[in-house]
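Input:
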Amino acid sequence: MYKTSIFSYTLNTNVLQPKMVVARLKNPSPRIGHCTKVPRNSNMEKLQHGYLFPEIERHEHMHLQKYPHANIIDLGIGDTTEPLPTMVTSSMVDFVRGLSTSKGYKGYGPEQGEQALRKAIADVYYKDLGIKPTEVFVSDGAQCDITRLQLLMGPNLKIAVQDPSFPAYIDSSVIIGQAGDFVDKVGKYKNIEYMKCGPQTNFFPDLHKASRPELIFFCSPNNPTGHAATRKQLEQLVDFAKVNGSIIIFDSAYSAYITDDSPKSIFEIPGAREVAIEVSSFSKFAGFTGVRLGWTVVPEELLYSNGFPVVHDFNRIMCTCFNGASNIAQAGGLACLSPEGFRAVKSLINYYMENASILVNALSSLGLTVYGGKNAPYVWVHFPGSKSWDVFAEILEKTHIITVPGSGFGPGGEEYIRVSAFGQRDSIIEASERLKYLLYQEEN
Amino acid sequence: MSITQSLSTPLSSSSSTFLAPSTFNPRSQVTLPVKSLGVCKCIAAPQEADTAYKTKVSRNGNIAKLQAGYLFPEIARRRNAHLLKYPDAKVISLGIGDTTEPIPDAITSAMSKRSHALSTVEGYSGYGAEQGERPLRSAIASTFYRDLGIEDDDIFVSDGAKCDISRLQIVFGSKIKMAVQDPSYPAYVDSSVIMGQTGYYQKDVEKFANIEYMRCNPENGFFPDLSSISRPDIIFFCSPNNPTGAAATREQLTQLVKFAKDNGSIIIFDSAYAMYISGDNPRSIFEIPGAKEVALEVSSFSKYAGFTGVRLGWTVIPKQLLFSDGFPVAKDFNRIVCTCFNGASNISQAGGLACLSPDGLKAMQDVIGFYKENTNIIVETFDSLGFKVYGGKDAPYVWVHFPGRNSWDVFAEILEKTHVVTTPGSGFGPGGEGFVRVSAFGHRENVLEACRRFKELYK
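Output:
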C-alpha cells in the first residue's frame, strides 16, 4: 500500500514537534527587576510542554501566518459547531430576563447544582440505575471536575490511564504531584500506569499486565480512539477495580454518541457503585462547549479504605474550591433534558455522527485503516510507521486541515491521527475531498 | 426575605445537611438540636462500615485535617434547622453575603442577546479562550486598571474569585507557606489545608500549623503588625476586608508591598469589594508603586453586578511577577487555566462586558449604592444600641463587637430571638472571636425589619 510512502519525505520536524513552551528557563536572561523568593512549583516544572489543545492552536496560528488566505478546516480540537436548539436558548433567555425581576432574581445557588437539574440528570441519564439526585454534582465541565477530583484524591496515589487518553488526566496528575518524573526514553511519567489500548487488544487494556493503581481513568466512548467498551469489558474493569481496591473515574462525556448497545454508564455494571465515579458533560452532548456545564456522579457506597464516604469529601471540595455552575447554563441544561430538548440535541448528535460516517468512508476508501466514528465523533486513523506529528504537519501543510497527532494523547497514540467530526457539513465534505486528493496525488 | 422566598431559594446545603461531619464545631457551646430534627443524617461513620465494601484508596489526609464543613454551608444548615423549628418565622438572612437585588436590564439584555445568538449560525460560539474573551479582558483592564500599567493579557477571566483562589493554590503547590489576615475569608485557609500546605489544626489556639495568622483588630486599625510575622511565601490580603469591612490605606498598602519586597513574598490581593469604597483608599494593589513585582489581584463581578449565581470574576497577574528562578508566575497560571479550567461561561462573559459599558457601570454603581445605604442603616442601628461597630463604610459588611462573648453563642441568640441570620466572627478565624458579621445584602424592607428586631432585642 502506498500509505507509508506518502510520509517518507523529510520535513523539518524539529520546527513542528511540540516545543517546551517556556517549560524551563534553561539559560535565564540576566534578571531585570525583582524576583520573589517563592520557589516555582516543581510539579509544574515536570510538565513537558504546553497543554495539547493550545499547542494545536499555536500550530494553526503559525500556519495562518504562512498562508494568510488559506481556507483552514478545523477537525482538530473537538469543538462543536452547530447552533443550539432554540428551545434551549429560549429557556436561557427566559431565565436571564427573570434575573432582572424581583421574583426571578437568584443569587448563590447550591454549589452542588440546582435540585431540579440534579434530578433531571439522574432521571434521564441514570434511569433505573439507582443514582440519586444527591449523588449528582453539577459543574462547569468535565475538564474542571477532573482537576477537582485530583484535588480530592491528593498527591499520594498512583493513577492508571488508557494509552492513548484525554490529556487532562495525565496533566492534572502531574500538577497535583502524583506522577513522578517524566522519563524521556519511553515518553511516560514514572509513576503513572499507561494501559495500552490498541486494535490488537480491541482497544481495551490487558488488565493482567496492570499493577495496582489507586485510580483508574477510563473514558468510554473513548477520546481519541472512538472505541466504546463492551459490557463484558466493563465487567472486567469493575472486577479488576474490586479485586484491587481501586477507584475508577469513568469519563462518559461522549455516551450520547453511542449507536449500538454498548453501556452508556459505568453504573450499568453491577457492583460499579462501590468502585466508580462517573464524570460527564453537556459540552459534546448539547453544544455547551462555551456555555460550560457538566456533572460528576459519586455514589454513596464509594468508600475510602477507612470507611469514609468519598462523596462527603467531594462535597467539601465543591463547597470550598467552587461556587456552582452558572445558573444560566443550568437553566439551559434543564431544557436539554426535557423530552423536547433531548430530541433536539439528539438530532445535533446525529448530524455530527453523519459527519463521522462521511470521514470514515472517505478515509477507508483510500485504503487507510480507520477506527472509531461509530460510537463517538472521533475518527482514529492509522498511519503505520509514521510519526504522528509528521503526519499532522503534512496534512496541515498540504490540505490546510487541522487534525490532532495521536502522540499528543500518549505514546500509545503514535502512528495515529485523530480527526474530529465536529464541523459544518460542507466543511466535512470539503475536508474529505481534500484528503482524498492529497492521498491520490501522493499515489500518482 | 419572607419565609416562602427562603424556602423557594434552593436550600444551599440540602445535601450537605446529611453530609455534615459528626464532629462539627468543637468551639461551640450551643446545643442546637440538629440531629434530633432528623435534618443532619451524619454518614461520616456509617453503621454498616464494617461489612460494607471499602476500596483500598486512602482518604486524602489533607482534607481530613479540615475541622468542619465550609463556613457558609454550615450557616445555611443552621438557618434551615431554624426554619424547621419555627416554620412560621420570617427568617431574614444577613449571614452569607448573597446579593438580592435584580440585575439591571442593561446587563441582562446583553446576556439574553448572547443566549439567543447561540442558536444562530452567525452567533454560535463553542470553546472560548480559556483566559477569557478578549473584549472583556480589555474592558476589565481599562475600567479597573487604567494608567496602572496592566495590559489586557495580564487579565484572566474566571467563574469567580473563590474558584481562582483554589487555582492559585494549585499553581503554588504544597510546599509553600502562606499568611492570612485573622479574621479572613475562609477559602484562603481551607484551600491551603486542602493543598497540603498546612500542618494539623491546633485546637487550643484554633489555628492550623504552618499558616501565619496576622491578627487584624480595632487596636491595630485592622492592619497587621508586619514586624511580628515570620516570612511567608504568599500573603492573602483582602481589602476592603471580608469580614471586618476595613479598607487599607495607601500608607498601609505601601508597607505591605515593601514587606513583600523585602521578604521575597507574593501578595494575593483580593479586591472583590473595591467598588464599595467610599473615600480614596486604594481600589487596587497596583496603585502602589512596585506592586507589580510582588502582587497579583483577584476580583469578582459577584458583589458588583449581583453575579453570585451567574459566576464571573478575574485575576490579574503582571508579567513582572516572577518565581525565585525568574519564571513568570503568569505562565504557570495560564497553564493551570488551560488544563484545569475551560473558560467562564460565554453568556456570563457577555454580561460582564455589558457591566463595563457606561450604562452598565452606572447601573452597577446604583445597585452598590443601594447596598451601601443598607449598610448605613445597619451601622446606625448597632451604633444607637451602644455597640462598637466597625466596617460598613467601605464594604457591605458590618463587624459588630460583643466583647467577652462567644461568637457562635451570639449568632445562635440572634437567630433564636430575632430570626435573623448573621455570621459568627470565629468562622473567619480566631481573630474573629467576640465579633459578629452582619451582611448588608437584602431587600430594603428586610434590612429595616431586621434592624427593628435588633433594637427590640438589645434595647
